[in-house]
Amino acid sequence: MAIKKQFLKSKPVCKVTFTVPAEDANNVAVVGSFNEWNAAATPLKKLKNGSFKGTVDLESDNSYEFRYLVDGKYVNEQEADAFAWNDYAGTENSVIKL
């Protein structure tokens, strides 16, 4: 898994590209505080190499909790900037700091 950050000079936005290697998966989405944890809001597109990829514009100078939803199962980003405990889910969420 990987996260790529591209900060824009023209406005306080960071283009964040999420890449998830999930060759056997049918559906992968990124859910988090930036999209109200909505599984339908940010689906990732399957590439020919079997990974899933998508880009989201997020406001700079913020941090966001998120997880991947891979065929209905939540998965954390191993390369996240940090992890935050979530009492509601009873587990940790990935955190991205921009």
From TrEMBL:
Domain Glycoside hydrolase family 13 N-terminal per the UniProt entry, residue ranges: 15-84
Gene3D superfamilies: Immunoglobulins
InterPro entries referenced in this protein's UniProt entry, alphabetically: Glyco_hydro_13_N (IPR004193), Ig-like_fold (IPR013783), Ig_E-set (IPR014756)
The name this protein goes by in its record: Isoamylase early set domain-containing protein
Organism expressing this protein natively: Polaribacter batillariae
